[in-house]
Design goal:
- This is Glycerate kinase.
- InterPro entries: GK-like_C_sf, GK_N_sf, MOFRL, MOFRL_assoc_dom, MOFRL_protein.
- One of its GO terms (molecular function) is glycerate kinase activity.
- Pfam families: DUF4147, MOFRL.
- With 422 residues, this protein is an alpha/beta fold.
- The chain has two domains: 177 residues, MOFRL domain (glycerate kinase, domain 1), CATH 3.40.1480.10; 232 residues, Glycerate kinase, MOFRL-like N-terminal domain (Rossmann fold), CATH 3.40.50.
- The chain is built from 16 helices and 15 strands.
- The strands form three sheets. A six-stranded parallel sheet has the order 6-5-4-7-8-9, with helices on both faces. It has a six-stranded mixed sheet with strand order 10-11-15-12-13-14, sandwiched between helices. Strands 1-2-3 form a three-stranded antiparallel sheet.
- α10 links the parallel β8 and β9.
- α13 packs across α16.
- The longest helix is centred in the first third of the chain and has 16 residues.
- It is globular, with a radius of gyration of 22 Å.
- The two termini are 24 Å apart.
Length: 422
């Protein structure tokens, strides 16, 4: 059984499928907010330890907690429990509210920005403005923060229009975030500038494939290396329309007292999954942490890396463009699993899943094996017909291969497992 996968028992119909799902569960457990905070953050003799870094709490006059992202409210809750005797004030915007005693928590909207997000972000700015050079400010930065952190009413309107236009463009998340940084006063290092000259500790819960941590929530605590010109080129490349662009802070003085600490990333999840696979007796190989690409090429790449007795692991997000006039149901993970049906061999199990449990539907992704393909053929289901309009969810409803976890807060991009029995 699994704490995270609701239909674990139904899906674990063979030993190989059970093993694959246990590896999935290990990935989820490694990025669970409570587990991460308890493991990585503690106080010993007035010294705060965070992932190997130390902060003398007696050095600071006041301590604040700010944050944005789907994980922000629960992370603030667990952080406040550790720092309760030291925290003066705080405000975070996430997907829950009223969970802390000291820190104000606001429920915002995601994936689209809104007036509610702006009002919550405004409160964060008000508290942040109180910080002086003698103060310490924790900034929780998580996936979803690009929508939840919203510096103005103008930004939320531009951000909503940008997201809706970009969704159908086929562009990647890095391009989207480049434009987001240049329509915001807070993203792209803007929040770090607003908090200067206080000491800032960014606690990063990364949802970005690979190591591009300045893209998490569009980088409110990182110096931005992109420019207005870069943003404009992307706007023109995808014919996104007109946007009022601003330059991000480039003066390095705003970042001299900023310490960004990555607590959660897909590297963390992949490492935990690798360890679980090896504990189950498999050879394991992490082939990539930032797969961005065509689903056909991604499927072929993973198959090429497989061999009997091996578990191939990868993180990333395939690129999909929604065809005009299509209304198929599904997400990137379901679709990649559907693509993998063309390559799956006897003894193989493939899983692709969203680390936040939400693959554009109520499912987290799908698990398939050679029997899945046979089952679809027996039911005379035409796979190619479902590929045309990306109708992957409906396809796997026929065979009960969808994975259900419910919404989870941490998001470290999509994760993929190809398990091959000996």
């Amino acid at each position: 059984m699994s704490k995270y996968i609701k239909n674990f028992k139904e899906l674990a119909s063979t030993e190989a499928r059970k093993n694959a799902l246990e590896i999935v569960s290990a990935g989820y457990e490694s990025i669970d907010t409570e587990n991460v905070i308890k493991k990585q953050v503690w106080i010993e003799q007035e010294i705060l330890h965070i992932d190997g870094q130390k902060f003398d709490l007696n050095k600071y006059e006041k301590i604040y907690i700010l944050g944005c992202g789907k994980v922000a409210c629960s992370a603030a809750f667990y952080l406040e429990r550790i720092l309760k005797a030291y925290v003066d004030e705080g405000a975070v915007v996430g997907i829950s509210e009223g969970v802390c005693e000291i820190v104000e928590t606001f429920k915002g909207t995601h994936p689209l920005p809104s007036e509610a997000n702006f009002q919550a972000s405004k409160r964060m700015q008000e508290i942040g403005a109180k910080a002086t050079e003698n103060d310490l400010v924790f900034v929780i930065v998580g996936g979803g923060g690009s929508a939840l952190l919203c510096g103005s009413s103008v930004e939320h309107k531009q951000g909503e229009r940008l997201y809706n236009k970009f969704l159908k463009s086929g562009g990647d998340i890095s391009e989207l975030n480049t434009v987001r940084k240049h329509i915001s006063d807070l993203k792209g290092g803007g929040l770090a500038k607003a908090l200067y000259p206080a000491t800032v500790v960014g606690l990063i819960f990364s949802d970005i494939p690979g190591d591009d941590y300045p893209d998490v929530a569009s980088g409110p605590t990182y110096i931005d290396e992109t420019t207005i010109e870069d943003a404009q080129k992307i706007i023109e490349k995808y014919s996104l329309g007109e946007f009022d662009l601003i330059e991000t802070p480039k003066d390095k003085k705003f970042f001299e007292k900023v310490n960004n600490i990555v607590l959660v990333s897909n590297n963390v999840a992949l490492k935990a999954m690798k360890e679980k696979a090896e504990a189950l007796g498999y050879d394991s190989l992490i082939v990539a942490n930032n797969l961005y690409g065509d689903p056909k090429e991604t499927a072929k790449f993973l198959i090429e890396k497989s061999k009997p007795g091996r578990v191939v692991l990868a993180g990333g997000e395939i690129s999909l463009t929604i065809p005009e006039g299509c209304d198929g149901k599904g997400g990137r993970n379901d679709y990649l699993a559907m693509e993998m049906l063309d390559h799956i061999k006897k003894g193989d199990v493939f899983v692709s899943f969203a680390s936040d449990g939400h693959d554009n539907t109520d499912s987290a992704g799908a698990i398939i094996d050679f029997d899945t393909k046979n089952d679809l053929e027996l039911k005379e289901v035409k796979i190619e017909k479902h590929k045309v309009c990306l109708d992957s969810y409906t396809l796997f409803e026929y065979t009960n291969n969808l994975i259900f976890t419910g919404d989870l807060e941490s998001n470290v991009s999509d994760l993929m497992i190809l398990l091959s029995e000996k």
